[in-house]
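re: that complex we talked abt at group meeting.

here r the seqs, copy pasted straight from the sheet so there may be weird spacing, ignore it
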Amino acid sequence: MQAQSSIKSDAHLPAQWHPALFDYLLRLGDDSLILGQRLTEWCGHAPALEVDLSLANIGLDLIGQATLFLELAGEVEGKGRNGDRLAFHRDVLAFRNCLLVEQPNGDFAQTMARQLLFSTYSHALFEGLCQSAEPRIAEIAAKAVKEVRYHAELAADWVIRLGDGTEDSSTRMIDGLDWHWRFVEELFEVDALEQPLVEAGIAVDRTQLRAAFDTRIAAVLTEATLPLPVYPRGIKGGRTGHHSEHLGHLLAVMQYLPRSYPDAVW
Amino acid sequence: MYTTELGKPDAKAPVAIGGEDPALVAAFEARVAADEFIEPKDWMPEAYRRTLVRQISQHAHSEIVGMLPEGNWLTRAPSLRRKAVLLAKVQDEGGHGLYLYCAAETLGTSRDEMIDALHSGKAKYSTIFNYPTLTWADIGAIGWLVDGAAIMNQVPLQRTSYGPYARAMVRVCKEESFHQRQGYEIMMALAGGTPDQKAMAQDALNRWWWPSIMMFGPPDDNSPNSAQSMRWRIKRDTNDELRQKFVDVTVPQAEYIGLTVPDPDLVWNADKGGYDFGAIDWEEFYAVVRGEGPVAKERMKARRDAWDEGAWVREAASAYEATRAARRAA
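got the structure back, here u go
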């Protein structure tokens, strides 16, 4: 946090930070964008009307966060790309989201498992980012942290309900968690790109968030009467653009219009 | 977002069903005629109750089925802002469905019963949602035309005689007018965009125009339930009055953005102060009401699948609540 006082606005942010900060903002923005996009797939198809509304609500929050982070990324990059340009005109290798958020929705249990893991992590991350030395990140985080707290609570409620519901729902919940657990480790990784940002107080040290995450997840799963998943080895790659097979399909759908009509304004 | 009575003419529905106390009926009719609101606990004729359940549930179903054609483009909305606005709109439609089901439940029919009636094909929903959304411009056309038509229908319903329905409409109307503007704004951007975009907008108007003006329902001389609904103040304007109003408002909007309404007979009639327009293909309308719309099967399948595939979730939630209640009682 020693750099906090030296970074007040873009003008004060030394230029050597820009590439790393740009990448960091893509990581934040892409996580929200890709998960938001996944949640829109549910619209009109959820198990109950109230669920449809809450999934849309979460999706809306995430797309709002993505817009703020990607607009800021474009500003920091300084090459004239705005949020839309970044969302709709990058290919798979340039996306920086974690593997967890691009996973298919599966059934409702699988969707809620993904939401619980992501929002629990993301809540802790945004709490930390409220104190970021980069004030524009702190500002977005201050807004997002309230939204994400609600997402994490809603997901926890459903995981508990389904885990402690019927035999069928419990089995589905176990499978849903099992599907996603291999992508948890990636969430807490700090690589060479982030390390200097952490030291400058701009980024949060993700490794420090793991213990609280584990405690919270264990508490939810205990209440849900579900076993803690085990997976020997985490699967990683999203932060450097090496994604699962799913992301390419998601982007093909999401980006189709702006790519088909590159000169059009919508 | 749709309220025109689509039920078959109910010959068995006189003003007072045999056995109803004429004094109660007279008092009810007097209250309605004085523009008082009827509330859930008030006495009401059985036929009034049945008509309302049918109309409000039809309206609720239309909101829910109406999420599907727009949901079809949520994943492909062409900008972050368009995606967020469309998602908020579709969420509003779901919210409207929710309060309308609640309003109908005050009349003694459960949401599950209403949903069963939808899934079994017994209950109707707006014919308009049985048309496909082929391009992004269809999302503009739906907001502009379909929500525009819905507003025409619903503004008078804020003064409908049944209190819970009228109050639901106040909130719904506020949101619908935002929906209409977002749709028109999409069309405006397309009409003023590249030649491809403009062609897309014109094609959408060509396909949605006639189904939109059919949304107001059969012509007045062939709308068997209208007279009764007008008398009960369930309905406040006739189908043809509303249709005329919609055409008069919408044609200049199309002209303003350089699109052509696909009706060669459309002409301003200075004497009546409104447009004359071409003949509506009522054969098509009745076919769609019967469930023969281009994507009627897809819409119903999507709703039934969502319900059936979500059954285990609803069962789990009930089981969990039951366990909790038992624990609390222990």
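couple things i noticed - Chain B touches chain A through 47 residues (CB under 8 Å). Residues 11 and 58 of chain B are 20 Å apart (CA to CA).
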